[in-house]
Every structure is written in C-alpha cells, then in structure tokens.
Design brief:
Pfam families: YjbQ. With 144 residues, the chain is α+β, with helices and mostly antiparallel strands. The chain contains 3 helices and 8 strands, in the order ββαββααββββ.
C-alpha cells in the first residue's frame, strides 16, 4: 500500500547537512513490511535542496558548499533579492542540486551505498524557511 508523510526537518544555517537519521526516524512506520519499493523525499521549498552523497567525512559537505558558492556566486548582479542578497542565488542552487531524492527500498530499509546519506542543502544564510525565519524545511516522503 502507498504511504505518505509530510514533516519538517530541523532548521539549519547555510551549508550541507546530513539528515538521514531524522528522515529514517520519521519514515520508520512507512518502511515497515516493504520488501521491495521506491522511496521519494521531496523538499517543498525553492531555496533548499536534497541530495545523496558521502555520509562519513564532514569535509565533503564543506567542500560541496564551497563549490556551490564558486559555481553560483552571491556577488552576481541578482535582480530578485526581495528576501536578501541570498534570494535568487538560493533558487538557482536549488535548481542545480534538485529538490528530490529517490532511493530503492529492500526488506524495510532504504538502500544506500556504503558511504551514502541524505543531505539537506540549505542555501539561505539566515537559516531555513521563508525570509530566513528559522522554521525548518518541510519535506514530503512517499513510499510506493
């Protein structure tokens, strides 16, 4: 049977944040009894993304954040800055990283490679949420 749940990831400052354990805790009920399936996690925001990458060495997360800042610098002459200088730059970074991840399910567990985990890519300086008010990021998990 399909299963779906909307929940909020904790608020984070700008950077790449490993959120695997939080996601697994929130989705434990939906994963139970699923022998073979598909798991999708979708971020309901335009200035944060989701990706799967290295879950062991935290310097990978710092390097990814540095690389995104180099590829999409805040110093460009952005026009859409209603919520601050990190507004449009955050939207573009989200488009590059993506706002969803899809993973296989096997025997009630998400299938990761040896060193993989789910990252929340937070692109706003002032923390998560509209206007940087620190509400966290709302995501929706779907299991088929």
């Amino acid at each position: 049977m399909p299963w779906q749940k909307t929940f909020t990831l904790p608020a984070h400052t700008k950077g790449m944040h490993l959120v695997t354990s939080h996601v697994l805790k929130e989705c434990e009920e939906g994963l139970k009894g699923v022998d073979i399936g598909i798991f999708t996690l979708h971020c309901l925001h335009t200035s944060a993304g989701l990706t799967v990458n290295e879950n062991c060495d935290p310097t990978v997360r710092t390097d990814m954040d540095m690389a995104m800042d180099t590829i999409v610098p805040e110093s460009l002459p952005w026009e859409h800055t209603d919520e601050g200088p990190d507004d449009s730059v955050s939207h573009l970074k989200t488009s590059l990283i993506g706002n969803s991840v899809t993973l296989p399910i096997s025997k009630g567990s998400l299938v990761f490679g040896t060193w993989q985990g789910i990252y929340l890519a937070e692109f706003r300086h002032r923390g998560a949420g509209w206007g940087g008010r620190g509400q966290g990021r709302k995501v929706i998990a779907t299991i088929l």
